[in-house]
Amino acid sequence: MPLPPASEAFLWRKLDQPGHDLCQFVPLTDGFCISGTAAFLDARRICHLDYDVMVDRRFHTTSASVRGVAGRRHISLQLQSVGAGRWELNGKRLAAADGCMDVDLGFTPATNLLPIRRLSLKTGQQAEAPAVYFSVSKMTFGVLAQTYRRLGRREYAYEAPAFRYKNTLTVSARGWVVLYPGLFELVDT
After folding, report:
1. How far apart are CA 7 and CA 98, in angstroms?
2. 126-128 and 147-150 as β-strands: parallel, antiparallel, unpaired?
3. pLDDT confidence of 43, banded at 50, 70, 90?
4. Cα separation, 112 vs 85, whole angstroms
5. pTM (2 decimals)?
6. Is the pLDDT of residue 4 over 50?
7. Cα–Cα distances in angstroms (integers) from residue 27 to residues 31, 76, 169, in the given order
8. CA distance 38 to 57
């Protein structure tokens, strides 16, 4: 997929509960920054989360941060890649995430771009893409097993067994999620 020439911005609407996510994709000298703000309801809690995900030119995640509030809980988490699929969370080793190359922030479809771009699957190809996953309900990072199979130019069969989720994601020409059935839809770019 071609790289974007300049910054892009996206606005998604949540489909399963009230909420929106405003995201900006910024090319940098040595990679890209995905930065956004999500405001939504989760289990009747008002959540306002800011996030930044840094990736290199090959779409390998180098760091991610989440900060804000979920109900009455304040969140300030910093995830850092220490190489070879190993991670630190707030400066402490996160051994459970060994082998993960991507970060999946469960409250935004922005991070689905990472495995889609990194894997660069051809039509018919499939790949496992376990990710370091941020759970709003637990307020921490864990591991999410997930699979992507490219169905066509802009469709991916996506599966996350832990959530019993299996559906077809529709993406833009650059890999951004346009429709995440039951969860998100792109409102504008």
Report:
1. 31
2. antiparallel
3. confident
4. 18
5. 0.93
6. no
7. 6, 25, 24
8. 25
